[in-house]
Specification:
heterotrimer; A alpha/beta (664); B alpha/beta (144); C alpha/beta (332); A: 664 residues; alpha/beta; Rossmann fold; FAD/NAD(P)-binding domain; Alpha-Beta Plaits; 5 domains; five-stranded parallel sheet; 19 helices; 34 strands; C: 332 residues; three-stranded antiparallel sheet
Amino acid sequence: MQRVGVFVCWCGSNIAGTVDVEAVSEALKSEPGVVFSTNYQYMCSQAGQDMIKQAVKEHNLTGIVVCSCSPRMHEATFRKTAAAAGLNPYMVEIANIREQCSWVHKDMLTGTEKAIILGKAAIAKVNLNAPLIPGESPVTKRALVIGGGIAGIQTALDIADAGFPVDIVEKKPTIGGKMAQLDKTFPTLDCAACILTPKMVDVAQNEKIRIFSYSEVTEVSGFVGNFEVTIKKNARYVKEDICTGCGACVEKCPMKRIPNEFNLGMDNRPAIYIPFAQAVPKVATIDPNACNMLKNGKCGVCSKVCAAGAIDYTQKDEYINEKYGAIVVATGFNPISMDKFDEFAYNQSKDVITSLEFERLTNAAGPSAGKLLRPSDGKHPHTIVFVQCVGSRCESCAEKGKEYCSKICCMYTAKHAMLTRDKYPDTEVYVFYIDVRTPGKNFDEFYRRAVEEYGVKYIKGMVGKVVPEGDKLKVQASDLIANKQLHIDADLVVLAAAIEPDKSARPLATMLTASMDTNDFFTEAHPKLRPVESPTAGVFLSGACQGPKDIPETVSQAGAAASKVIGLLAKDKLTGNPCVANSNELMCNGCSSCANVCPYGAITYEDKEFRMPDRTTKIRRVASVNPAVCQGCGACTVACPSGAMDLKGFANLQIMAEVDAICK
Amino acid sequence: MQVNEYKPLIVAFCCNWCSYAGADLAGNNRLAYPADVKIIRVPCSCRVNPMFILRAFQRGADGVIICGCHPGDCHYTSGNYFTRRRMAALFSMLDFLGIEKERTRVEWVSAAEGAKFAATMNDFVQTVTALGQNKRLEDLRCKK
Amino acid sequence: MQKITREQLIQKASELLENGTVSAVLGWGIGEFDYDVTPTVFSTVEELKNGFVFNDFCGANFSKYLVKKTDKIEGKILVFLKPCDTYSFNQLLTEHRFDREKVYAVGIPCEGMADIAKVKAISGDGIAAIGSDGDKLVVTTLYADEPVVIAAKDVLAERCINCKSKKHVAYDELMGEEGEVIESNRFDEVARLEAMTADERFAFWQNELSRCIRCNACRDACPACTCEKCVFDNPNSGVENKSPANEFEEKLFHIIRAYHVAGRCTDCGECSRVCPQNIPLHLLNRKFIKDMNDFYGEYQAGAEVGGRAPLVDYTTEDLEPGEVFDRGDNNA
């Protein structure tokens, strides 16, 4: 039996005005287990807390009930008080007689009556409380960053800067991501490569950072502080540590007509390739689907020309197992496929391109060496039509587009339009838009410059149809402000395709038990207050995998994610919430119902040997809850048919005792 | 308004993160609702076992209401989705047994919806009061 | 009349025993009466010849027995599974309740089993023997001079009249022909009750459940009720009770039992078959099944191993508990 002390707070007149606190403390005196009951003006004050501490000592209290304001207000306070008095902090229960009693009921009689019942419920519960001790788990002081774009790069650099080792896993042969493909960046128009590639070099040179390029995560187990990850290093048929990146093999490879992914298929690359000049790691990779040597054993030119002897046609995929304390997801985005947007003739005409393709076309390292030339005939385009929101904000066309705003298109389109007019003033540039959205530092100024200084023709309205005719693209559009139909003969049409999360994100989320929204963007733990954390402890979000973002935003989120990781890795031990589920192995059927409803993957199963009543032993499958992962929602306790699963701090018997006390 | 001596007993299970906070907000804003409503705090609406609900009726409750975060807003991401299915099935079953369906309710109340909390409770108390005492799922031994 | 005979089953079992495939056979054994068939484990051909029966009263679903028996027996155990039993078999595998490797499952066809209550209603009490003659049952009673001849189809158990499937969803070996899933009318009775007023439903169930003597036969026979320890036997569950003291506890037991098997119940009908008080307990389970089919899409527990029951699953678009009652049920 507990020895319970009851402390009724007046909260000045906040409680005492509607609740007869004297009557409450008197009535609760006779409840089972109660050995001491009193009331005081401000229980949360130092004097009030001292009163509690003293009572604990004088009356050997084992449990405390405070009838006061909401536990959301002062539960933590009174738990600390209990701890200071030498009690387990979880031996405290709060009866909420302010927010849920004195403040919502008008007369003294009902208020007092209800306060007594709430007090009784808290006493009934505390009688069944048991001391709870938060679990501790060690922290592996190494972080994993999945994705090597600007988000992953920045996160890794920041974590490494704090002194923790970081691994970056990038599925492409080089890090750099989408930013490496961009030409200039808004709103300052500095060149993407000039600001990105030094960072890539920093990553390569940082002793704390390992890069697993051309690799992917295939398995994740464990929990916050203690993840175990399997990384698959795809065979690139080139020994990474020996290859000097001289490019002799690339030059001599006879298979030269493979569409170049880096330039979005607008030119070709050989079967052995380095994606771009500043690639990190600067190592060649053989495309196994294109290489004759790998396909049918005929060729071997690259091996012959490689002075370093780095080519290895027998290389196999390699699996690496590593432990991590934290995982950052930075899987980024891709433009959506334009296949379903027949109205813009993307698949009919080479001169209808996406904005990312436009980036490559205007990039000095791109397929046309930075000259804006039409992909079809290499001629200079004189009329360019930019179409915004292609697949974005697409409420009625969810089957081909996205309902959300892709956020970055307004600004990059303004950039494209401005740069075009700057370099080629003889070009007429039209931009069709639904709205122009330019919130961001210096963003609106940038857009206005495009309109006012550069004379870009912004037209509110959508393009209905693009029809290739001769060497022209007939653009039919509506001008909503002038309320008329427009017909423009364009040389080039640029589609601002919506962006979507990378396809690798969904299977990764499953592996991480991290949640996603319907659009496959990772969900943050709280949309406002925990924007860089996933609800799964130890998993953090960086960049566009969480939602559309521009570079400055991505970098700030990357830094924020890094600081969260650093905060985690700086700890030697993690202290958990002790109010977690626990399974009674003797009653567990091993049926998996609990694991099916656990949002955190906190429940695993093991085969355990049990002694049976007839002295035989039996091996049974039983659930075990990882207290470091469990967040204490209690979904499993109801899913469990045998009642083997219970929740500490909110146990079946405790809640039923509250029900009984209220219904008495 | 009709003068009614009968006072129902209502047990409200509120999730810690949304509805319990919503109830607190009702208090902060001094939005009155009948004292017949007694709140039990649970970490998540998905912690509410059907047995708790039957237990409440057994011990003399006239109505039981479960409040949780709005679907999609669960602190634990998916708890209230399970609540929704479990309670839909359970309430339908109670109705199948002839137990008045108005005595059970699930309501989603966010931490910002103090007014909704008070309004919901006022409405629920009124509904249950109209039904009168719970006779169909009672345990006479537990009556006063 | 069953298409497969006792002799065929004994022959199959003997074969598997003798060639060492299995070391024991879970089958129907002679009980006190011809209609009182008892689940039995046979270890030798001799035992099979003396004690194995197969007739229109072999309704017992053996799936549940595998939970305990597979542990007790070295090697594999042979189990005969009627189509409806195979669903329970899969469901138990889904819940990891026994080791599939320890079982040799032989699917057998089923023409529907007889309901002894219906037989007695025609023949009268004092049944001494029940023989079969083609598709007829020949019932000898202590009180009648002539045996009573009853068409088997007239005394078919309710669950067999509304048979949901003649298809075996699990087996190692199949005897006879494979059947099909059947579009049954098994939810008609639930719908009839749903159409009543709440008062009528309450009266119906009050009448039915008040007969409960808490013998636990439903729980003991139910292949979904395989808990290591039932909440009703567990002093720490807060709802422990061994016998109902009043109306509340009768209802509590049956509501919670039905809730605990909701989504896991394959609708095998064993609960109603074994109820000595003839309470139509299967209607409670069917109500859950019908509701979940209506609310969340068709789901048949045990149709496959690894199926995800509706109550441990969700979609973001599920209907609200309050909307349940707006779906055409306007009474009360």
